[in-house]
């Protein structure tokens, strides 16, 4: 059997481990660090997302083997600010926090063992835990969370302009920062724009996740600027020319429409699960073979996605206990783990995959409760839809780059929204009781 030879640093980028600095990148980083330290608590996350949307992951400083990309430096600055200002004293540990911590630690340790590399997996795990901790410390209410997405809605306009220019000219102006090609990649005659993101699919997923949030904010607040943000996010995803991102985007209106039948969401979920089981029993091929028939653009590798899941299941004995460091022998090109669930299983075994699924399940349980009690019901459902869009995209991609931070940001804000919703509801109930007592 032929084994596909992958380039060195596959899945990481050739810039990893090498200091890469550009004056523009350094300037933006400096401004962002100063803003993180100086801004009010409710705006302190905005500079971090500014970096995510306009700076390539290639921008980094490597000191004695320690690799600090600009996103990691911003997270460290956030952490220092939280400790300096004592904002961590408002962090009250919740069951979801514990589960997130356990999952991240288990994933990092098992991945370090299975890959034989201690530094990078542990560093990424610590990075995500620090980001989660900082978000939980500074975004204490649902309005705080809304301000972050409001800022992202404003950023969508200039980002969309850059993507449209790239689609017209075929040149990526972010290439001066390194990490992205100067000339836009072409597949089946279609330009695959990526801007400052490490891959077109990651760019598409990032903005596909945000699309339902912007849509929910337009419905919730009736402001046209959020409708403009939806249009911008739509065009960004379309210019990436990827089946995975387009299908994820198209799923967003479906998930948002479920708000109308939210009281029956559990029945719909179990009914859909039962349909998949029935299809699996009556189909000649396994039910996940349906993925091979899905393709929104030319050149789609949907059959590869099916093969990856199929071999993942048939080779479960290899990764089940403590993951595995190689999938090259599964089939040609199987090193490219374009499925988040497969990636988690391969890197951290069944325990890591189980904890990941539990984390998703608990997220949905919490957000469903928030929708029931919050005054921001539609917006909360937008966050629900954003995570659902992620789960759809997981069938065709495993996150890296900026998408990892946005995905984990969704995990951190659910607890902030939950605590705020419970507090507001309790306060309203107490006020109602006082008014009732006054009437008596």
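Q: What amino acid sequence fits the structure above?
A:
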């Amino acid at each position: 059997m032929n084994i596909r030879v992958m380039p060195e640093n596959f899945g990481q980028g050739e810039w990893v481990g090498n200091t890469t600095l550009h004056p523009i990148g350094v300037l933006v980083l400096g401004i962002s660090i100063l803003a993180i330290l100086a801004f009010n608590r409710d705006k302190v996350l905005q500079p971090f997302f500014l970096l995510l949307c306009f700076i390539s992951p290639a921008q980094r400083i490597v000191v004695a083997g320690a690799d600090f990309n600009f996103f990691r430096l911003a997270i460290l600055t956030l952490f220092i600010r939280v400790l300096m200002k004592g904002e961590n004293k408002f962090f009250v540990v919740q069951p979801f926090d514990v589960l997130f911590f356990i999952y991240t630690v288990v994933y990092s340790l098992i991945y370090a063992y299975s890959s034989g590399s201690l530094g990078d997996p542990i560093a990424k795990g610590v990075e995500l835990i620090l980001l989660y901790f900082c978000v939980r410390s500074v975004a204490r209410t649902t309005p705080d969370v809304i301000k972050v997405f409001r800022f992202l809605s404003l950023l969508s306009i200039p980002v969309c302009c850059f993507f449209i220019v790239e689609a017209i000219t075929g040149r990526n102006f972010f290439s001066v920062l390194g990490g992205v090609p100067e000339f836009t990649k072409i597949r089946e005659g279609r330009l695959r724009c990526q801007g400052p993101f490490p891959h077109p699919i990651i760019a598409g997923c990032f903005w596909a996740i945000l699309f339902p949030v912007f849509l929910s904010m337009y419905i919730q607040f009736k402001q046209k600027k959020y409708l403009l943000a939806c249009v911008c996010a739509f065009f960004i995803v379309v210019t990436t020319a990827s089946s995975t991102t387009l299908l994820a985007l198209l799923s967003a209106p479906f998930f948002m429409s479920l708000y109308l039948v939210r009281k029956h969401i559990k029945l719909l979920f179990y009914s859909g699960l039962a349909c998949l089981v029935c299809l699996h029993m009556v189909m000649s091929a396994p039910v996940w073979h349906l993925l091979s028939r899905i393709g929104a653009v030319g050149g789609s590798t949907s059959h590869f996605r099916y093969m990856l899941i199929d071999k993942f299941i048939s080779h479960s004995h290899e990764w089940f206990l403590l993951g595995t460091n190689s999938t090259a022998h599964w089939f040609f090109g199987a090193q490219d783990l374009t499925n988040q669930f497969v990636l988690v299983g391969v890197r951290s075994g069944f325990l890591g995959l189980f904890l990941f699924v539990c984390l998703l399940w608990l997220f949905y349980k919490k957000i469903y409760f928030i929708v029931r009690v919050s005054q921001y019901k539609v917006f909360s459902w937008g966050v629900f839809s954003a995570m659902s869009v992620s789960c759809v995209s997981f069938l065709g991609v495993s996150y890296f780059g900026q998408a990892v931070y946005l995905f984990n940001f969704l995990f951190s804000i659910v607890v902030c929204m939950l605590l705020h919703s419970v507090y507001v509801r309790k306060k309203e109930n107490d006020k109602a009781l006082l008014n009732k007592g006054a009437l008596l």
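Q: And what stands out in the fold?
A: The longest helix spans residues 402-439.
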